[in-house]
Design brief:
It contains 21 helices and 14 strands. The protein is elongated and about 105 Å long. The strands form two sheets. Strands 7-8-13-10-11-12-9-14 form an eight-stranded antiparallel sheet, with no helix packed on it. A six-stranded mixed sheet has the order 2-1-3-6-5-4, with helices on both faces. The protein is of the alpha+beta class. Helix 2 crosses helix 3 and helix 15 packs antiparallel against helix 17.
Length: 625
């Protein structure tokens, strides 16, 4: 009988377990599931981007921001360009879920004795933790991409360090692991800049361990492990700079995140982030992991003082790994504490996701270490770790919550299909949460989705299409700009005026679409005095608009978020014009009088303005007498 090679059976069992985990994820956490926030515009951007036929610097990051590297969706774009493959929400999710679960394979390779337990712990987090179900599998979140790239880079860097410090390692092996390290460090840092410091912790801790057993001259060679990490950090920095320059030049906005140190708020931030840590039940597990890292450090110090330290033994390996994982957890928490962007976003718990992951893995590694330190269990410690992994794997599969359908995706797909069938290619305007979740569901990009002026803009490259369109559709779902029951009679969007033509052009509950016609042909040129200093956001401000042609009857549109209370509009002879406020717009009605209108002076009220007050543009329209 042919002998089965050693290691084949455990590898086969592990791959079967991994496949079972992936199946559970695909069945339970796909889009349209309430456990992963259902379907919304944030999630839709990844689908919209995967079907994008354009490759430029703006596509290097998740549309409209510089914090999530877009390499997963660039690969999807490339695959579509080569094959014509249509990316649906489920297909993008399957790509993301498969990549996220590959983290288990990397964790299995980190350490021989604890690898099974580390992988099972990550799988249990994915299946049982509500926080992780959202952060790993919601299409809008980066952590499913970042964590796998991080652990693959960690694994490759550990192998590189061992080959650099080993006396008999050949240049071929070093080159292969160096190349793998560069690739995975680049993907991890591109996905999130926070990956760089976390990988530095891993290099330092593992470098110390390997250095303790390396021949004297080869210890200096360990510094070469910093090169792949430097390459990854440098690539991300250069890519982000290129993105900022391109976006600023093309769209007038750099889309830059405020990553500076939050001076003056560090103590407040620390209290807030610690409170966030304890909000989730896993916070206690993280604290246990940090405590076990202290135990590991004390064990290493005692072994060193006794001159009994052997970094090649399993217990020493586990001690160093526990310290590295806990150090990464603390490093991420430190970054979340000192960066201004985190406070601006309300100290959201999602910024602690790497801390939760690494801290929980530190607890698993520390548990395996404790098993190796108890004399009565030492000889069976590896088997007990595998047994614990099996129990955790089984429990997570048995306790996973049933899928809870959330109907928004299905309803949005029906609405998008109906609009495309009736209108073909058209501009779809609306609030941020009203548009993108619809536009992403047509892979051919026939729904050119653009947020209304003043809301967060993900697709600035389609703004010219708004100005050129003869008709546009306004989508109502959450109702950022008016409501489906009472849509605004006029719009002034990105300098182009639009008049309501059909308030209920298409109705697919909970979505309603109103149709507007472009009124640019009625526009009359005018100039303002003073030319650039007026803003409705300033109480008591005054401006005079002088018309290049007299107007018998007209309408002055002022795009602003300022209140109309106290605002006045008069002609030079004192004739008063009525000022009406509709969502994000002032309507100054120039009614027909004894003489045509040649100018109008607009004066704002003295009431205070909201903090989010803004002013965009004005337009004068000639109306039928």
């Amino acid at each position: 009988m042919r002998r089965i090679p050693r290691g084949t059976l455990p590898t086969g069992i592990f791959l079967l377990a991994w496949g079972s985990l992936l199946v559970q994820v695909l069945l339970h956490f796909a889009p349209g599931n309430a456990a992963v926030t259902g379907w919304n515009s944030d999630a839709s951007i990844t689908v919209l981007q995967s079907n994008d036929p354009v490759f430029d610097a703006f596509r290097l990051y998740y549309y409209g921001q510089d914090r999530i590297g877009a390499w997963p969706w660039l690969l999807a774009q490339g695959w579509r360009a080569l094959t014509g493959f249509d990316w649906t929400p489920w297909r993008v999710f399957a790509w993301q879920a498969t990549w996220a679960c590959i983290a288990c394979l990397a964790l299995r390779g980190l350490q021989q004795q604890a690898g099974w337990l580390l992988a099972a712990t990550f799988g249990a987090l994915a299946l049982l933790s509500p926080l992780f179900q959202v952060q790993l599998f919601a299409l809008s979140q980066p952590f499913g991409w970042q964590l796998t790239a991080l652990f693959l880079a960690w694994w490759a860097l550990m192998r590189l360090l061992r080959h650099l410090g080993g006396p008999s390692s050949g240049p071929g092996a070093v080159a292969r692991w160096a190349a793998a390290s560069v690739l995975f460090c680049t993907l991890a840092c591109w996905t999130s800049p926070t990956s760089g410091p976390l990988l530095l912790v891993a290099i330092v801790v593992e470098g110390v361990r390997v250095g303790l057993v390396s021949p004297g001259r080869r210890r200096w060679a360990l510094l070469a492990a910093l090169v792949p990490l430097a390459a990854g950090i440098g690539f991300e920095s250069a890519t982000r700079h290129f993105f900022h320059r391109f976006a600023k030049k093309q769209f007038g906005h750099a889309y830059a995140t405020q990553l500076k140190v939050d001076k003056g708020f560090l103590a407040e931030n620390a209290r807030a982030m610690f409170g966030r840590l304890l909000e989730d039940p896993l916070g206690v597990v993280v604290l246990v992991g940090l405590g076990l890292a202290v135990v590991a450090a004390v064990f290493l110090v005692l072994q060193l003082r006794r001159r009994a330290l052997d970094p090649r033994r399993p217990q020493e390996e586990l001690a160093f790994l526990t310290i590295a994982l806990a150090g990464g957890a603390l490093g991420n928490a430190f970054i979340a504490t000192v960066v201004l962007h985190v406070r601006i976003n309300g100290h959201d718990i999602r910024y602690l996701v790497p801390t939760f992951v690494l801290g929980t893995l530190a607890a698993a590694s520390g548990l395996s270490l404790v098993l190796h330190l108890v004399p009565a269990l030492r000889t069976r410690a590896a088997g007990l770790s595998v047994l614990a992994a099996g129990g955790l794997f089984a429990a997570s599969h048995l306790l996973v919550q049933p899928r809870i359908p959330e109907p928004t995706l299905e309803l949005a797909q029906a609405a998008a299909d109906a609009v495309v069938a009736r209108a073909g290619e058209t501009v779809l305007l609306g609030g941020y949460w009203d548009t993108y979740l619809l536009g992403a569901l047509d892979p051919e990009h026939r729904l050119l989705s653009v947020s209304v002026d003043g809301d967060y803009q993900r697709t600035p490259f389609w703004i010219p299409k708004v100005r050129e369109a003869q008709h546009i559709l306004m989508a109502f779902f959450h109702g950022y700009l008016g409501s489906a029951e009472a849509p605004a009679p006029w719009l002034l969007q990105y300098g182009a005026p639009f008049q309501l033509e059909d308030p209920r052009w298409e109705v697919h509950p909970p979505f309603t679409f109103a149709r507007y016609r472009n009124a640019s042909s009625q526009q009359v040129p005018m100039r303002s005095e003073p030319e650039k200093t007026f803003t409705p956001c300033e109480p008591g401000a005054t401006v005079t608009y002088r018309f290049e042609q007299p107007v018998e009857r007209g309408l002055l549109l002022v795009s602003t978020h300022a209140p109309t209370s106290g605002a006045e509009a008069r002609a030079a002879d004192g004739t008063e014009a009525r000022v009406e406020g509709v969502p994000h717009l002032w309507l100054v009605h120039l009614e027909r009088g004894a003489t045509p209108w040649r100018e109008v002076t607009l004066r704002t009220g003295s009431t205070s303005r909201p903090e989010d007050c803004w002013y965009r543009s004005t337009a004068l329209l000639r109306l039928e007498p």
